[in-house]
């Protein structure tokens, strides 16, 4: 209710002789009512009131004290109703007169009528306040004077179908103009919609039509703009529309309209086009790393029922598709791991910055990475191992120790997604061996840090052999200290300093033994070491691996040209290994040998001799053998060793399970195997291993039920 006029009342005492009371009361009541009726009429006609407001208020109180409150209430209601009826006759009886007005003029006229009525009702109530607060308040079935005024206005004016339709049409027209970008009189709409709300006809007369029109408008707009605009522009448009509608609610619409109105806009501009928006634009936003639009996309889709679930599905599919291209394109193998790391960083940033670290999206991303990275078995594991090797190898100046640690942490995240971790282990062990044996490791701390990460991720069993390799290197240092002391005590000390790394065969990769022709002095020294070592560790067997060795040459001279075939015969070195070694000595930066004819490659028939003109600014230089890229045969060999190891693990798991369970069906056995094995395996491969164990009498089929097996003790 609008603010009422509060009158300050001074109570007056009226003394009347007892015998004159009835006559005086009757005359007083009639005269007082006439005075009050005149005042009400003046208020309704917007003319000046002849009487003092305090006097009128006192008159109402006196009438109520004479027990005429019911009559006074009825008379007041009748006067107000007569006035309202006169108003509708004056303004709206002949509707043809108002049809000449445009809708805006009609709304202004309607608003003046309403404002006048409110002002008049407030004034009348202030005069009859005592009646309102006593008699009316004590009778719960009677409406207050203010409510009576609303009821009369609603009954005789707003409930008129023509008036109501014209009013609502005008309001909707103004809103439509504002939605199209024009400026309107918001205070006028606020007043008229407040009128409808006060009269309790807002929902039925206005809101239903308003929401229907809104639904129609945005349905058409959504269809049109989805065709005309790209997704980023469309998303900003939707956000702007939602902001505009919320502003309308704050400015002139009733608060009860907020939820259905916003839901309508979200449904027509978003809900009806979720799939189309994501199909048309999600990949564009993600490819372009459009953080602002991705944040907006998530915010908008979070408002629509099922929006985030739909976005999550498309997000997962995008990651699988994009990542699948990285992994399943052999021509991109060289950059696969770096591309995977960059892609993971990018998706992490989107999940954290744009998707508010939503756990569902983070889990979907992990699931998608695990899916696509294992689409191509074994290769990602192999390349990740080689990528780690490139970062841990000496000469890598790309990163500081802190940066290297961060890179290793990121690699471990990718590593977690790989199913065939045994493939990674095989290639990692092979590369680690090279780094340790030829002194190519960039940092022992970094090596041990990586080992610690692998142990934490896969357990002690996974890293036991790798840790054994480090242990061998440390033990070898201690043994060489003892060997030097042993040599010094010999009667014929050698002028050759021999350093030996003693490797436990089970820890290190398998190396093909190669027989080479060493100088007699070297052979003699090897025998000395053999006696020394076996004297301390009886029962052990030593197998020399000269291909993994290095030597330090202090001086040399040879003026004769020697054919490569002659060198091969004299040394016994395998052809490929020999050519790489000669290429390092004659074709690299430090050319201590001359090659004839000149060239970058070593061919059959080439001749070599010592370069007497060789000079270098350093007193001690290191010539590394030219590294030949891993051949297909070496890759296949490593992979085959992994598969062979897997067969052994499958066989061991089958025997272990059958020994414990004694009798088991095929399906249950396969299920148990999947639970125990830590690498991917096909059902057909399991079946082959089971058949092999049956052939070797570790188990047997049930004679009556072929799909059931029995353990053979």
Automatic annotation (TrEMBL):
It comes from the Eukaryota. GO terms for cellular component: Cul4A-RING E3 ubiquitin ligase complex. The keyword Ubl conjugation applies. GO terms for biological process: cellular response to UV; developmental process; DNA repair; proteasome-mediated ubiquitin-dependent protein catabolic process; protein ubiquitination; regulation of protein metabolic process; rhythmic process; ribosome biogenesis. Keywords: Isopeptide bond, Ubl conjugation. The keyword Nuclease does not apply. PROSITE patterns: CULLIN_1 (PS01256), CULLIN_2 (PS50069), DILUTE (PS51126). InterPro entries: Cullin, Cullin-like_AB, Cullin_CS, Cullin_homology, Cullin_homology_sf, Cullin_N, Cullin_neddylation_domain, Cullin_repeat-like_dom_sf. Pathway: Protein modification; protein ubiquitination. Residues 379-549 form the Cullin family profile domain. Belongs to the cullin family. This is Cullin 4A. It comes from Dicentrarchus labrax (European seabass).
